[in-house]
Specification:
By secondary structure, this protein is α/β, with parallel strands linked by helices. It contains 15 helices and 19 strands.
Length: 501
């Protein structure tokens, strides 16, 4: 009797990030056993595919040799999808190189047969941006281990929730006339995220790619100005006027991106610096070894916008952000604003209204105040409201929600949001749902805002915004209850409506 071979185990670092969060479920679908090295197991468990028996989670940091050794054990191949991009981290290139060297050593010690790394396209030689230079240094560091490395180099990745896509969309939506740096005429060869995923999986399954450096890109080469015009067409907007000027430095460009788009200036700056480099595939080796028909730029944009419109965005650029731990409220001054309301609406209806907060839906009351607060936050370097949310209908642990992060979610009982806005302290907004006391049908909803100030500025901030709580939080609580009651009242009519299929 012939024995059935065990499927190979593949390690993925960055599985809660933009690419890794899409790659892992596709590998599982193809029958692989996937091992994910993550800092937060709970954050990964929030992904629906993480419950598969083929998924194994190892908790630890990519810089921890012991965690790496445990994660690598028994793996045939490893995807390295770790990369720093924040310019505020002054030594990010050194850290990236050290992480790659440690990863390579651990892979060699564990007998891993291959490493697959997603890097960045860009003309070689002098003049390469720091961001792209760091990608090259990571390639060298991984190869120094002696483990064969397959490097896939990509330019701009177009997909729902990608950083490049969000920059493009917001710039084009908000600015009918764009004053841009000279890099707007630089040529680029964008690629759809689904095509990147194809090449990442095909590289694993194509032995001829072992040890190769392969450029991957879509079928079109265009200037950034033309790509912006494509975006205007995809958004059904009038043709945008692009005016290049020589005085906009990468720093000024990144600050402008920070103000207009959801991306923070510290992330935007490396991207802006890299835009001066021509990013075009130098050959068609990837297409010959892994035949595949890639989407055009417009097709990739249309697909991304359709996903965004339907609320089916799998991952977003903000997913990879550091998720704050539960704050330790013991000790020191803690300000609390606690409000409670009861309703006849069932708990599930109230939970649905709580989970709809933010994004395009807003906050049920005084949205103009939230918008002002968002603008103020952007001006001082915070995320503001423009990050929106990954999906209009669902939340999961670790999701970014405007200037909040989902740090606790226990459906349909508890949701906690931790503020990532610029604050002189730590703020959370928590919702607790329970059945009404005494057996009365319905739901009790408790909303608790907590703020732990840092110094006198923090205390002054709390008392400055305290008068607005009666408008913002009281109105929000009433709005949530009203939405739940309306939804509950509509449910029976939906159930009795005739089917139209």
């Amino acid at each position: 009797m012939t024995s059935i071979a065990e499927p190979p185990t593949i390690l993925i670092t960055g599985s809660t990030g933009y690419i890794g969060g899409r790659l892992a479920p596709r590998l599982v679908e193809r029958g692989y056993r996937v091992r994910c090295l993550v800092r937060s197991e709970a954050k990964l468990r929030a992904r629906p595919w993480a419950s598969s028996p083929r998924v194994e989670i190892v908790t630890g940091d990519a810089g921890d040799p012991e965690a790496l050794s445990k994660a690598m054990r028994g793996c045939q191949a490893a995807y390295y999808l770790v990369h720093s991009m924040e310019a505020s981290t002054l030594d990010y290139r050194t850290r990236d190189q050290a992480l790659a060297e440690g990863f390579g050593r651990a892979a060699a010690a564990a007998g891993v047969k291959r490493i697959i790394y997603l890097g960045g396209l860009g003309d070689t030689g002098e003049g390469l941006s720091q961001h792209l230079s760091s990608r090259r240094e990571v390639e060298v560091a991984l190869r120094a281990s002696g483990v064969p490395v397959t490097v896939l180099r990509a330019a701009m990745i177009i997909g729902s929730g990608s950083a490049s896509f969000e920059i493009l969309r917001y710039l084009v939506e908000r600015l009918p006339i764009m004053i841009t740096p000279r890099w707007v005429h630089t040529q680029s060869q964008p690629i759809a995220v689904r095509d990147v995923l194809h090449y990442l999986i095909a590289a694993l399954e194509t032995p001829a790619t072992t040890g190769r450096t392969l450029d991957i890109g879509g079928p079109e080469v265009k200037s950034y100005a033309d790509i912006m015009r494509d975006m205007a067409g995809a958004l059904h907007l009038r043709r945008r006027l692009v005016i290049p000027v020589p005085v906009l430095t990468p720093r000024l460009s990144s600050l402008w991106i920070h103000v207009v788009t959801p991306l923070h200036a510290s992330i935007a700056r490396p991207l802006a610096e890299g835009l001066r480099n021509r990013v075009i595939c130098r050959g068609d080796e990837a297409a010959r070894l892994m035949p595949h028909e890639c989407l055009t730029i417009r097709q990739a944009m249309d697909a991304a916008l359709a996903k965004d419109e339907s609320g089916e965005v799998e991952t977003a650029w903000s997913d990879a952000g550091v998720m704050p731990g539960d704050p330790v409220w013991a000790g020191g001054t803690v300000f609390i604003d606690r409000r409670e309301m009861e309703t006849t609406a069932p708990q599930q209806a109230v939970w649905a209204s709580v989970c709809s907060l933010g994004g395009k839906h807003g906050y049920y009351a005084a949205d103009w105040l939230w918008r002002i607060r968002g603008v103020m936050d952007r001006l001082v370097g915070g995320p503001g409201l423009r990050r929106g949310r990954r999906s209009a209908g669902t939340l999961r642990l670790g999701d970014a929600l405007d200037f909040w992060r989902v740090t606790v979610i226990d459906a349909p009982r508890q949701l906690e949001l931790t503020a990532e806005m610029k604050l002189p302290g730590v703020a959370t907004l928590k919702f607790d749902l329970s059945e009404r006391a005494g057996g009365v049908p319905g739901t009790a909803l408790v909303m608790t805002a907590r703020f732990r100030p840092r110094g006198l500025m923090g205390i002054a901030y709390w008392y400055a915004v305290l008068p607005l709580h009666g408008i913002v939080f009281k109105g929000m609580l009433r709005g949530l209850i009203h939405a739940a009651v309306v939804a509950a009242a509509q449910e029976p009519s939906k159930a009795g409506a005739p089917r139209r299929d």
